[in-house]
Design brief:
single chain, 55% helix, iron ion binding, alpha+beta, Cytochrome p450, five-stranded mixed sheet, three-stranded antiparallel sheet, monooxygenase, Cyt_P450_sf
């Protein structure tokens, strides 16, 4: 029996939970059937869109499909806004301050830090705690200016904000905590983070007044806020510093685990990736990492709210009217396997271009730290895959949406 036939035998309230489970356990055959026979699938909770062209339309049309679902989680932060002056101004400021010229140096630093952290573990190692979370936390401390922060606190602040914004929406059913518990943990984390950041800004502001150089992100944010030439004050600088941390840790960890996992699942693929890593050709190795993320993305979909009565897939044989306020999921995991847009989609091809995927989002809300993430993730994965002294066990999700532990045993 096909997926759609099975769904039609279920009560309406059981259909989305079943589909959500298949999206985790059997995504590619499910998506192939949906693209072929029901590319726009309307359910009581939401509407799933699975073809490439329709996903692009949703993510490009922020006037029709907005990020309003983020507002209850992120308040006035610019990521919860679409085409606003504040969105463009603050995003532009943060991108300008991210030191893109130093990306090669950042990558080399991350690889060296991953090597150091792994070398300190002489037996079995938890790759999540040690590397995929450990390296981004150390990166935030070293490059962004959080050097005196407690690593456990940085992890907690990033984690609960990610859990609430991305995995605690009305259509979710979190099993690792209740919806209210997740919100409470995010709010408590933000109170702690705000207190820390205010103190950090005061300290670094004093160092700048004493003649110090703005060598990290926090210091440059202070200089920008003090300049007074833009609508960007100290309060907004603190808010954006928090956003910088929140976006850097958990998403990097999730992506690094997913990429390494897909590569490790095939011995031939693993050996080819190791050969590329040893060759020193970063572009060749990165192809393995980002192709693996096409097969297992950290975010299989992006959710939006319809801002008006409209039609999905307008002008096609699957055109579907949806009302204002409808929740829409652009299932980009499916879109990256749509044969109308992707050549030989079922083939693992490390020569594909990262730009042809949705790994870092699409459109107005493309990832702020795309350039940093595109260096940091492969640096971590490379060190993990080149460790021939250990082999991976199963990833432990602890009933949640992200990798929480990944034990690598001595060979």
């Amino acid at each position: 029996m096909s997926y759609l036939a099975k769904i039609e035998t279920l009560p309406e309230g059981a259909r989305w939970p079943q589909l959500r489970d298949w999206m985790k356990t059997e995504p590619l055959p499910l998506f192939a059937e949906l693209r072929a026979h029901r590319p726009v699938l309307v359910l009581p909770e939401l509407t799933l869109v699975t073809r490439h062209s329709d996903c692009v339309d949703i993510l490009a049309r922020h006037d029709l499909y907005s990020v309003a679902p983020y507002a209850p989680k992120q308040g006035s932060y610019w990521m919860a806004q679409d085409d606003t002056a504040r969105h463009w101004r603050e995003k532009s400021i943060m991108r300008a301050l991210l030191d893109r010229e130093r990306i090669p140096e950042m990558r080399a630093w991350a690889e060296a830090e991953a090597t150091r952290l792994l070398s300190e573990s002489c037996d079995a190692v938890d790759a999540v705690r040690t590397l995929t979370r450990g390296v981004p936390i150390a990166f935030v401390q070293h490059w962004f200016g959080f050097e005196d922060a407690d690593p456990e606190a940085l992890l907690k602040w990033s984690y609960w904000n990610q859990m609430d914004a991305f995995w605690n929406q009305p259509f979710d059913a979190p099993a690792f905590a209740t919806a209210d518990e997740i919100v409470a943990s995010r709010e408590a984390s933000n109170d702690e983070m705000r207190g820390y950041l205010v103190g950090l800004f005061q300290k670094k502001g004093g160092q700048l007044q004493a003649g110090g150089a703005p060598t990290d992100m926090i210091s440059r944010l202070i200089v920008m806020a003090r300049a007074g030439v833009l609508e960007f004050n100290a309060e907004l600088a603190v808010l954006n510093a928090g956003g910088l941390l929140i976006g850097a840790v958990e998403t990097t960890s999730h992506a690094a685990v997913n990429a390494a996992r897909v590569i490790c699942e095939d011995p031939v693929r693993l050996e080819a990736a190791r050969a590329a890593a040893r060759s020193g050709d970063e572009r060749a190795f990165d192809g393995f990492v980002f192709e693996a993320l096409r097969f297992r993305p950290a975010f299989p979909y992006f959710f939006r709210i319809a801002e008006d009565d409209t039609a999905l897939a307008r002008g096609t044989d699957h055109e579907t009217a949806i009302p204002r306020g409808a929740m829409v999921l652009a299932v980009t995991h499916s879109a990256m396997f749509d044969p109308t847009a992707v050549s030989a989609p079922e083939t693992f091809d490390p020569r594909r271009r990262l730009q042809d995927t949705f790994t870092f989002g699409y459109g107005v809300h493309e990832c702020l730290g795309r350039a940093v993430g595109a260096a940091l993730i492969p640096a971590i994965v490379k060190v993990l895959l080149l460790d021939a002294t250990r082999s991976p066990c199963d990833v432990d999700y602890r009933n949640g949406p992200v990798p929480e532990a990944w034990r690598w045993q001595p060979v």
